[in-house]
Amino acid sequence: MLLDAARRALAAPRGRLAIVLHLSRLRAPRAYHGRIARPVLDQAAARLAGTVYPRSNGDLLLLCQEPTSGDASLQPAALVQELALLFGAEGDLGFISLWHLGTEAAGFRAYLEEPAFAPPILPAAAEEVTPAQTAAMAEWLKSSQRIPVPDLLGQQTAVELHAGRDVPIGSRLSPLFREFVMHLPGGAAGMDPWLERHVAAALDERLLAHLQHDLEEGGRLTRASVHAGLAIHINLALPSIASPAFGRLTQAARAAGARLGVEISIVEAFADLSMLDYAAGLLRHAGFAFVLEGLDEASMGFARLGSLGADLIKLDWSQGLVQPPGPRRRTVEGHLQALGLDRVLLQQADTADAVGWGQANGINRYQGAFLDSVQGATRMFHCHTASLCSLKQCVARGAAAGTQGRTGCSNPALLDLPPEAPPGADSVRGALASAAVAPMRVPAPAHRW
User: Fold this and answer.
1) How crowded is the C-beta side of 289, counted as CA atoms within 13 Å?
2) Which carries the bigger pLDDT value, residue 197 or residue 205?
3) pLDDT digits (tens, 9 = 90+) for 112-128
4) Which domains does the chain carry?
5) Facing residues of 96 across strands?
6) How far apart are the C-alpha atoms of 316 and 95, rounded to whole Å?
7) I need a surface site. Which of 34, 156, 185, 247 has the fewest CB within 10 A?
8) In whole angstroms, what is the distance from residue 106 CA to residue 434 CA?
9) What angle (nearest 5°) sits at the alpha carbon of residue 385, between those of residues 380 and 391?
């Protein structure tokens, strides 16, 4: 069937495309890789009058028409970017091929002539889930039932920096939301990363049930955020958003007057775009913020991101974003403008340089260790027992949602309050100085890279 379709395409190649996702070239091919990539290619096939053909070695071949519309999301480069987004972290160079058959038929013919139709001998690591991984998952899930949900959670407050070129960086810092993140303990660390996602999905129901109860009872985990009008963000797998437990949390949040946001990883979002659309509709109906997280410099130019309707897009900071003046820097700036600076948050902003880059590029929303230190400094200014702690201790205790991680803090209620700048401390440097700790290096907003 594939060979017949390929021959027909090569017999009339004008206006035809061939795109191959070489899943067989991934470092450790898994059966579920094809299940993740197939919906993306199927949607492209529907838009471009094409068909997806699986090969016996795991590769997926899309034969389709070249787009006639100028819509950027329909261009071949956009599809290649989407596939790279899904598998770039696991693939070597050359795991995606694209041929315009009208001018590049020779390359496609060479691919078809490769001895790839025989089933490949995959390494043992290519098994989707090994018995050892299954046993580790089952044991951890069993043991985790004895751990209170708050002790499985970390928390971090995102902030907005109202700063301009003539205002010290960090001036008039205000909290945006508090994110609760489920941490997998050391017992799960040896599992396949995709298996870890299954474990996390299994924990969603516990998290949803606990937050529902906490909101209904005015519990410690959510009380301070609700009273301060601070939104609460959680990370969920897509199926969890359609679960009865999520519906019950929605009712509890409305009754408590809580503002909630749900964060979905970009990789999971593009693995099932139809489910993403359904989940986003549920979030909008519930009045919750829809957040896409996990964007990086390699995927920020993906053409369809802006059409997904996310209220907030979280961009991971890395040195790859820093470019000298020239075409690549203009490309990064163009991507930021296309996403909309008013809905971009720079996460993993762990250094002053990261915040300086964000400020220089018009980003005002942040999450990361550097801002955690600033918030820790403001807490210490207001804490009557601050002399008993170091800034590092205060930051670590503030990142723990449960009592276990707060051991040693004599003023734990302060850890749950939104940051409030000390009087007269109108900058990051001032807040750190007010806490009697060594000031961190703070770059000027107009940082030169």
Assistant:
1) 23
2) 205
3) 887 654 444 444 444 45
4) 2-122 (3.30.70), 134-434 (3.20.20.450)
5) 21
6) 24
7) 185
8) 69
9) 35
